[in-house]
């Protein structure tokens, strides 16, 4: 469902981060991406998410080159098919937790029932009417996960989703994430530094200057 073809990205300061990157993510496939800090993991997710543009290559989602879409069409496609768990992807401060999680549903004119269920699932059901400023970093991360999953996206992109969580909460959140991915037949790319988190994926890839490859000990 996602094809990365000869993808390249350099920053304005001339720093080449990704070059000639190829990968094909099948429907329903859940992969973890590991790799050294600064190698370009967040850049890769940002490109797929359309938060940044590649300077070479193509990103095909169900056969559509997202870089070739105009802004409105790209926004619609993302709203429809993608779920993001990005630390920098801010929860809106003036909305309650329930309103934040329900936003992807509201944009699709769907009822907020699933939003309530997802808040329950991340252990924040009782906090539905609180505001983000009343929460800890780890709690906010759980809100971001609930919101990313609320509309049952076909492609989930997660950048270190358990980075702020204690081990017990991380385990619960990963269980939820994997359950949702498998129940909904979604594909997912999770960037993580945690081997425990990566072990919940179907396969583990390493991003390096050579591109995306199976991690050591993983079948090719
Ligand atoms: N907006 C930017 N402008 C210039 N350089 C950037 C920018 N964003 C990231 N970089 C650089 O690109 C490299 C890859 O960054 P990033 O994708 O965040 O790595 P990772 O997530 O793997 O740690 C790093 O060297 C980083 O300093
Ligand atoms: Mg990063």
From TrEMBL:
Keywords: ATP-binding, Cell membrane, Membrane, Nucleotide-binding, Transport. InterPro entries: AAA+_ATPase, ABC_transporter-like_ATP-bd, ABC_transporter-like_CS, ABC_transpr_LolD-like, MacB-like_ATP-bd, P-loop_NTPase. SUPFAM superfamilies: P-loop containing nucleoside triphosphate hydrolases (SSF52540). Residues 27-212 form the AAA+ ATPase domain. Pfam families: ABC_tran. One of its GO terms (molecular function) is ATP binding. It comes from the Bacteria. PANTHER family: IMPORT ATP-BINDING PROTEIN, TRANSPORTER, PUTATIVE-RELATED. This is ABC transporter ATP-binding protein. It comes from Noviherbaspirillum aridicola.
């Amino acid at each position: 469902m996602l094809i990365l073809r000869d993808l390249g990205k350099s920053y304005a300061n001339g720093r080449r981060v990704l070059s000639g990157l190829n990968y094909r993510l099948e429907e329903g496939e859940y992969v973890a991406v590991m790799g050294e800090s600064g190698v370009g993991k967040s850049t890769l997710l940002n490109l797929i998410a359309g938060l940044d543009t590649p300077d070479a290559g193509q990103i095909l989602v169900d056969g559509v080159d997202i870089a070739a879409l105009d802004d409105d069409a790209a926004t619609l496609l993302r709203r429809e098919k993608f779920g993001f768990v990005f630390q920098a992807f801010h929860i809106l401060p003036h909305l309650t937790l329930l309103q934040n999680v329900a936003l992807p549903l509201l944009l699709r004119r769907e009822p907020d029932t699933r939003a309530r269920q997802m808040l329950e699932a991340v252990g924040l059901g009782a906090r539905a009417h609180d505001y983000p400023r009343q929460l800890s970093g780890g709690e906010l991360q759980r809100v971001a996960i609930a919101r990313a999953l609320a509309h049952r996206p076909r492609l989930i992109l997660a950048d270190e989703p358990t980075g702020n969580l204690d081990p017990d909460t991380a385990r619960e959140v990963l269980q939820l994430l994997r359950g949702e991915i498998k129940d909904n037949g979604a594909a997912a790319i999770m960037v993580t530094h945690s081997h425990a988190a990566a072990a919940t994926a179907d396969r583990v890839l390493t991003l390096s200057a050579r591109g995306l490859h199976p991690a050591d000990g993983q079948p090719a």
